[in-house]
Amino acid sequence: MLPDSTSSSTAVVRRIITTVLFFAAVSLSCFVLYRASNSVGLRFLNSFEPSPPSFTYVTSPVHEEAPQDSAENRLDRVLKDASMQDRTVIITTLNEAWAAPNSVVDLFLESFRIGDHTSRLLNHLVIIALDGKTFSHCVVVHTHCFALVTKGVDFSQEAYFMTPDYLKMMWRRIDFLRSVLEMGYNFVFTDADIMWFRDPFPRFYTDADFQIACDRYYGNPVDLVNNIPNGGFNFVKSNNRSIAFYKFWYSSRNAYPGLHDQDVLNKIKNDSFITKIGLKMKFLNTVYFGGFCEPSKDFNQVCTMHANCCYGLDSKLQDLRIMLQDWKQFMSLPPYLKRSSMPSWRVPKNCSLDSLRHYDQPGKHVLQG
Ligand SMILES: *[C@@H]1O[C@H](CO)[C@@H](O)[C@H](O)[C@H]1NC(C)=O
Ligand SMILES: *[C@@H]1O[C@H](CO)[C@@H](O)[C@H](O)[C@H]1NC(C)=O
Ligand SMILES: *[C@@H]1O[C@H](CO)[C@@H](O)[C@H](O)[C@H]1NC(C)=O
């Protein structure tokens, strides 16, 4: 079951709508028969005298959505449509502040288009909209959208770091991703403020259940002590170990009240439970998976760049735009200059200034949503 607290009331509404649609469809077909009867002389149908049906209600959902269609079925359909052959999908979550025109999601999608052979990956990207307005915007700009709306929580606004709504949003995400694993899909989870410049799949470890990008990377992919992971980007294989791990991670929120998923991950990453279930965890090198905390230095190797270590949406947008320009500039170079010139990012600019002013602890995932 999807842990969707709105699902029961949604199901009731859906049933009512489906019933209405059913009768609309029935009355439409009666109407059609009635009209037909006039021409072929089946006068007995006249007694039905159907009221004119409301055509606008008779739409494809009558056929597409069975009465028992649940959130889980709908999610399964979206995932199936977006899935690669090996049941891998790319997932991001989005709320209204990041989905507005000229906001984060536009830059995110643009990065796929201007990246090096990354536009085909858009076919495998599922955007999880955390509110209704975001869902409406999603279907305009992207093919694979799913609405994950949580009753009683407004995720639509910019959720400031560590406010109660921010924490709820982060934990909702972990619980949701667990259900994706249970449905048998591997996923790359990516924050929308991560720019995709190259296909990351060739850089993933083949022998890890859970691999995660870092704010700070200390050179050893299995070093649990020093590496500082960032929950905004990870690749997780669906298996019993990863499902058990996500359940453990989610339930650990009770042991560390007030902490968000990433800080709790730092607490539990060395827990004996993980050894017991045999989960293989690895950390991704910032050479390929960089960010403002620790930028990838090599334009010829970078796969993704995260606007981490950044406080405030305006600063983030500003620096993301500069970063996309830097990339376009690089892509326009002739091949020999791509290899020989050593371009560097002009960012972080405002992000670094602001993060120094507001928040100087390194290695934190500063703002989401
Ligand atoms: C998970 O464990 C069950 C029971 O031990 C087993 O039947 C199943 O095949 C496992 N699934 C995966 C994906 O490893
Ligand atoms: C991690 O766990 C191992 C084995 O339980 C232990 O030896 C080590 O000290 C732990 N490291 C940290 C930083 O807790
Ligand atoms: C970026 O920083 C500069 C210098 O502090 C400031 O003038 C400008 O308004 C900032 N821009 C944004 C979008 O925050």
From TrEMBL:
- What is the official name of this protein in its record? Nucleotide-diphospho-sugar transferase domain-containing protein
Q: Which InterPro entries match?
A: At1g28695/At4g15970-like (IPR044821), Nucl-diP-sugar_transferase (IPR005069)
Q: Does this entry carry the keyword Transmembrane?
A: yes
What is the taxonomic lineage of the source species? Eukaryota, Viridiplantae, Streptophyta, Embryophyta, Tracheophyta
Q: Which organism is it from?
A: Escallonia herrerae
Write down a Pfam family by its short name. Nucleotid_trans
Which chain regions cross the lipid bilayer? 12-34
* UniProt keywords, alphabetically: Membrane, Transmembrane, Transmembrane helix
Where on the tree of life does the source sit, at the highest rank?
Eukaryota
Provide the Nucleotide-diphospho-sugar transferase domain boundaries.
121-320
Q: Quick check: keyword Transmembrane in the entry?
A: yes
